Amino acid sequence: MYKSFSIISVAALASLASATDPWEGSKAAYQAPPSITVDFQGAPAEVAHYVRSIPANGQPFYTNDPLSISHIVSDGSVPCTFYGVDGLVLPKSTPGLIDVGPPQTITYAVCGYAPGSGYKAKRFEA
Q1: CATH number of the structural domain spanning residue 38
Q2: Which one of 2, 80, 108, 110 counts the least CB within 10 Å of its CB?
């Protein structure tokens, strides 16, 4: 009785040890979009704004526009961080509008994940 239980236990543990990562398929299935469309809005937003398609490659993208920005609107499909001329660093990872305070020229943005900065889970010892 104990011998058969031991054999079954060892076989079960061996099959678990050789199992592949259950999340591997879902990781491969997600592809970040190649770019994200961002609307930079001044005041009033109806006439003072510009739109940029920013690559989602984790590299700086320079806006090349001196307009003082009050709001930034995007769909939030990838996280972005916006950098202002007066030292503003504004992360945005959700869809919709965010306020830029105080309003200022946005010099560049970084969208997506920087190469080699993927999330790594930490394991904690008990």
Answers
A1: 2.60.20
A2: 2
Using a cut of 0.90, tell me whether the model's pTM lies above it: no
pLDDT for 22-76, tens place per residue? 545 544 555 657 899 999 999 998 899 999 999 999 999 999 999 999 999 998 8
CB 72, CB 82: distance < 8 Å: yes
d(CA 62, CA 54): 9
Q: Is residue 116 part of a domain?
A: no
* CA-closest candidate to residue 92, choices 83, 82, 84: 82
CA atoms within 13 A on the CB side of 38: 30
Domain count, the chain: 1
Find out whether 37 and 61 touch, Cβ atoms under 8 Å.
Answer: no
